[in-house]
Recover the amino acids of this structure.
C-alpha cells in the first residue's frame, strides 16, 4: 500500500507544478478508493492469520496469538489505506512540517496510550493493539482535518465524482509503484531467510540484522532525499521546466554521493567496533567486522539508489523500474548470493556480495536511464498525463533542445 500510495508522488507533483490544483484532491480520492479496495483484498490474511502460519509450520502458541492480534489490527489496515495517500498529497505541495507535526503529536499520544493501557490497565496484547489503532487513526484524522480546514486552498474542494473516472489507468500506475517497491524490500527479506540456512545461522542472522539495522538508519536520510527529488522532479516537469528538473537531479546526486563517501569511510574506519553497540557476543562482532568492506560499498550504493528511485517516481517510470528491480535483484542478486553462500562456501560474505551485485547493477542501470533521459519529452508526457486524467494545461514546454543527464 505504501508503494501504491507512491503513485500520487508522480500525479500530484506534476499536477501541482502545472497549476492544476483542483486535480490533487481528485487524485487523492482516487487513491483512497484503490487502496481501500486493496485493504479489502488483504483482509483475508488478517482473518486467517492463524491457519496461514500453521500451514508454514509455525509454533502453535505464537500462531494463535498472532491470529488474535491480527484481528485486533484490522482498523490499522484501513488507516494505512487512507494515510499514505494523504502523506503524498501533502508532500507534493511541499507541506512537510505539517506531516512532521502530526507524526510528532501521534508519537506522544501513542506513548501515553501504551503506558495507560499496558502498564496501568494491564490490557496486554489488546492494549497494544488499541494503542496502535488509535495512533494511526490520530495521524489520518489530524492530517485530513488540516486539509479540510482550508489550509490547502484550491487543492481540496470537497469530494468529487471525478474520483471514479479513469480508475483503470490510475490503478495501473499504482500497481507499478507497488511492484517496484515490493521487489526492492522483499529482496532484503529473502536474504535474511537464506541467512537462516547458513552454518552457524544464529551468528549469520545476527550479523545481517546489525548491518541491516545500520543500513536502515542510513536509509532514513536518503528516503528523505528520495521524497524531496521526487516532488521536485514531478513539480518541474508538470510546470514544463525540464532544465530545472535536470538541475535538481544533478544537485541531489552530488549531495548523495558526498554523503555516501562519508558513510563508506566511517564504516571502514570503525570496522572492528561498529558491531559492538548491538551485541556482547565476540563471534557476532567478528562476523560483522568481516563484512565491513562489502557493507561499506553497500552503504555507498544505498546513498545513490534511493535518490535515483525518487527521480523515477517523479517522472512516472514505475513500471520500467519494476522490471529493472526484477532483473537485477531476482535474476542476478539472489542467485549469485545463494551460489556464493552455499556451493562456494563463502557464507554470509558471499550472500552479502550477491546483494551488493544486485544493488550495484540496479544503480548502474538507473544511472544510465537517467543519463539518457530526454527531459523535454518527459515534460510533454507530464502535460499529456494531466490532460488525459482530467486536467488541462496550457503551460508550454520550454528549452526544446535535447537535455540529458
Amino acid at each position: 500500500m505504501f508503494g501504491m500510495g507512491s503513485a500520487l508522488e508522480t500525479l500530484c507533483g506534476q499536477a501541482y507544478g502545472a497549476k492544476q490544483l483542483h486535480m490533487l484532491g481528485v487524485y487523492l480520492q482516487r487513491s483512497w478508493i484503490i487502496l481501500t479496495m486493496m485493504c479489502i483484498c488483504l483482509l483475508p490474511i488478517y482473518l486467517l492469520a492463524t491457519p496461514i502460519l500453521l500451514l508454514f509450520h509455525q509454533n502453535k502458541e505464537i500462531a494463535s496469538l498472532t491470529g488474535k492480534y491480527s484481528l485486533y489490527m484490522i482498523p490499522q489496515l484501513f488507516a494505512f489505506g487512507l494515510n499514505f495517500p494523504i502523506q503524498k498529497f501533502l508532500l507534493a505541495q511541499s507541506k512537510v512540517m505539517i506531516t512532521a507535526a502530526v507524526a510528532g503529536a501521534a508519537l506522544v499520544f501513542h506513548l501515553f496510550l501504551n503506558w495507560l493501557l499496558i502498564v496501568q490497565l494491564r490490557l496486554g496484547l489488546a492494549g497494544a493493539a488499541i494503542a496502535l489503532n488509535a495512533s494511526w487513526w490520530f495521524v489520518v484524522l489530524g492530517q485530513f482535518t488540516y486539509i479540510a480546514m482550508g489550509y490547502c486552498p484550491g487543492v481540496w474542494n470537497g469530494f468529487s465524482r471525478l474520483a471514479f473516472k479513469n480508475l483503470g489507468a490510475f490503478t495501473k500506475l499504482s500497481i507499478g509503484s507497488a511492484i517496484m517497491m515490493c521487489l526492492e524490500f522483499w529482496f532484503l527479506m529473502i536474504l535474511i531467510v537464506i541467512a537462516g540456512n547458513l552454518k552457524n545461522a544464529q551468528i549469520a542472522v545476527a550479523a545481517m540484522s546489525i548491518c541491516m539495522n545500520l543500513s536502515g538508519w542510513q536509509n532514513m536520510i536518503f528516503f528523505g532525499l528520495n521524497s524531496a527529488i521526487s516532488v521536485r522532479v514531478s513539480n518541474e516537469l508538470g510546470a514544463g521546466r525540464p532544465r530545472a528538473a535536470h538541475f535538481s537531479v544533478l544537485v541531489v546526486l552530488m549531495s548523495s554521493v558526498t554523503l555516501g563517501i562519508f558513510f563508506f569511510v566511517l564504516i571502514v574506519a570503525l570496522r572492528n567496533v561498529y558491531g559492538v553497540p548491538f551485541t556482547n557476543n565476540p563471534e557476532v562482532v567478528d562476523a560483522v567486522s568481516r563484512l565491513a568492506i562489502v557493507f561499506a560499498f553497500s552503504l555507498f550504493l544505498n546513498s545513490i539508489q534511493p535518490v535515483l528511485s525518487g527521480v523515477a517516481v517523479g517522472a512516472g517510470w514505475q513500471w520500467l523500474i519494476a522490471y529493472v528491480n526484477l532483473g537485477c535483484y531476482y535474476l542476478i542478486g539472489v542467485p549469485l548470493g545463494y551460489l556464493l553462500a552455499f556451493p562456494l562456501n563463502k557464507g554470509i560474505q558471499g550472500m552479502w556480495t550477491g546483494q551488493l551485485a544486485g544493488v550495484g547493477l540496479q544503480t548502474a542501470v538507473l544511472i544510465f536511464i537517467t543519463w539518457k533521459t530526454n527531459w523535454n519529452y518527459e515534460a510533454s508526457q507530464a502535460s499529456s498525463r494531466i490532460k488525459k486524467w482530467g486536467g488541462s494545461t496550457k503551460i508550454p514546454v520550454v528549452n526544446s533542445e535535447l537535455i540529458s543527464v
Remarks:
- Residues 201-238 form the longest helix (38 residues).
- The chain has a mean pLDDT of 87.
- Residues 21 and 154 are 6 Å apart (CA to CA).
- The chain is about 80% helix and 0% strand.
